[in-house]
Amino acid sequence: xxxxxxxxxxxxxxxxxxxxxxxxxxxxxxxxxxxxxxxxxxxxxxxxxxxxxxxxxxxxxxxxxxxxxxxxxxxxxxxxxxxxxxxxxxxxxxxxxxxxxxxxxxxxxxxxxxxx
Amino acid sequence: xxxxxxxxxxxxxxxxxxxxxxxxxxxxxxxxxxxxxxxxxxxxxxxxxxxxxxxxxxxxxxxxxxxxxxxxxxxxxxxxxxxxxxxxxxxxxxxxxxxxxxxxxxxxxxx
Lengths: 116, 111
Fold this sequence. Notes:
The structure holds two protein chains of two kinds.
Chain A: E1 5-7, E2 10-13, E3 19-24, E4 31-37, E5 44-50, E6 53-56, E7 65-68, E8 75-79, E9 88-95, E10 106-107, E11 111-115
Parallel strand pairs in A: 2-11
Antiparallel strand pairs in A: 1-3, 3-8, 4-5, 4-9, 5-6, 7-8, 9-10, 9-11
Chain B: E1 5-6, E2 9-13, E3 18-23, E4 31-37, E5 43-50, E6 55-58, E7 61-66, E8 71-76, E9 85-93, E10 96-101, E11 105-110
Parallel strand pairs in B: 2-11
Antiparallel strand pairs in B: 1-3, 3-8, 4-5, 4-9, 6-7, 7-8, 9-10, 9-11
């Protein structure tokens, strides 16, 4: 069964360091999402791609976060420098249809970040 | 504002029914969802309901939608220990062209 792949599963870093997360969506899924889930809260959208284009990054802290999906397939989310408040689960999801679909997202297992 | 609200915790006995409630904000939302998250895992879509429906049944799951009160519920019949997880309500469409999640309800099933 096709899955959304994410790496690393766990990352521990010190504040002010740079971290990067990678996501490979389900093959053929045009839309890719990065969500942040703080412990005890629901996921919050950071950035949404349609193919290689960003369609929503309104909640992405652009002073320290960046995301790219250069060839419209896999994606990287980077944080530099990391802060204590960035400790969270970073979830990648993909969907088959474009923005405005039924909202059926397929999630990866997430990358848990701990900033010390 | 964007605010989907859920109760944080529900405890039920194995074999009983569970009812998880949610209130959402945007009356023009087109779809409403229930996602399940098991420990250490990503979210899995359980079911969804289109806004012009008031009920949807899928095996042990029943979704009820009250558009007037902007209230959504998920009923799990014959709850099993494998149903223990966090359940997220989410809305899509209307003014927000993205999924807005609630904080999740942790369901604990005990013998």
